[in-house]
Amino acid sequence: MSEPEMTIPHLFRCPISLDLFEDPVTLCTGQTYDRSSIEKWLGTGNLICPVTMQKLHDPSIVPNHTLRHLIHQWLQLGPQFHPGNSATIDSLAALKHTLQSQEDDTLENKLQVLEKINVFFSGEYSSFSRSCFVQLGLLPLLLELVFGGGTIEESHVVSNNDHMKFIEIALGCIVKLLHLGYDLEALNIIKDDESKLATFVVLFEKGTITVKSSLCHIIESASSSETTQELCYVFGNTQKLVHEIVLVLVQNCDASEDAVKAILALCSLNSNRESLVREGAIEGIITYISMISSSSGNEITQIRGQNKKLVTSIAMGIVVKLLELESGRETLVSHPNGVDTLVKLVFSVKCDQDCSDSAVEALSIVCGDYMSAREQAIGAGVMTKLLLLMQSHCATTTKSKTRMLLKLLKSKWIQVPK
């Protein structure tokens, strides 16, 4: 497809030459130009941005690899790009402009625009059109709209169905953009403004299950990058937020699995673990494991696409991390079902090898510190479970941990009456 036959999208035109970018570069003002055009401009002594007319405090230019990649995809796709070739790119830019416009800011109009944007994340559209939203800066805009006030007044966040629907769709788009692997640093606006963090907590407390699920995904994303580690710390040490995550966990609802992953994400920082123990993460996990392990039948029941064995294994991994703290060990041992729950997971048809390994490790930790834990474990039949595990096809490391636990318990071996 030759260039004369194409209508070049506005997004792909240099603001100076109005031609298709050949080597897009970005100034400190955030505006992108073709390298040859902006170098000529700067070479004549102009130290202002041609579009914004802002003075350039830093005249350096940075290659815009994302835009270059999009243009390359567009040129390669040609007539196969659906729908509407270059018109689609300009229409995406128009949707974003309407969403951020202050001239027509009725919620109804914003909601209609957001629903159109959400369509472009469906499977029938190419990753190219979705990637355009990254270049257009949609993620920071959506974060501002959801958490920054904007079109959504905080007093109406939970009392208006349209507001909640807007938030659901906007958060869904945010999660999809995060999954593309871009702009994680944009999440930091939540920690940089107390009102935004407060809105995040209010939404977790009062929002729908869909909203809670999306917020869990945001927490998970915040733990995956060094640029958002401070945000992860803020999340983990916000008392009300951690408490609400634990509540979602024990509700055994569609968002419970996401809550498990959010807690695991918060556990990635040692500085968060004391807060998690204090707000009931261990008790919540024990309750959750007990609920999903007591379902009828031995089949692997699906929970939102992932099986119970995997979810239980993730939860047990969290317990092991939290048992590194003295407060965590005390909490588990003092829980009425704490040690018994670990014993049940040592060898069970509803527990995979990783889960068994974590259960043995957790028991070794608490039994090493507490005589009462040894007595509870033996009374719950741990010796039989451990011997069965030794005879199974478990990993060598698991067998090694099992031998050590058996040796630890040997001094307290008791005969349990039949």
From TrEMBL:
Pathway annotation from the record: Protein modification; protein ubiquitination
GO BP terms: protein ubiquitination
CDD domains in UniProt: RING-Ubox_PUB
Catalytic activity: S-ubiquitinyl-[E2 ubiquitin-conjugating enzyme]-L-cysteine + [acceptor protein]-L-lysine = [E2 ubiquitin-conjugating enzyme]-L-cysteine + N(6)-ubiquitinyl-[acceptor protein]-L-lysine
Domain U-box: 7-81
One function term, GO molecular function aspect: ubiquitin protein ligase activity
InterPro entries reported for this sequence: ARM-like, ARM-type_fold, ARM_PUB, PUB22/23/24-like, RING-Ubox_PUB, Ubox_domain, Znf_RING/FYVE/PHD
E.C. code: 2.3.2.27
Matches recorded under PROSITE patterns: U_BOX
Keywords: Transferase, Ubl conjugation pathway
Function: Functions as an E3 ubiquitin ligase.
Annotated protein name in UniProt: U-box domain-containing protein
Native organism: Arachis duranensis
Gene: LOC107479288
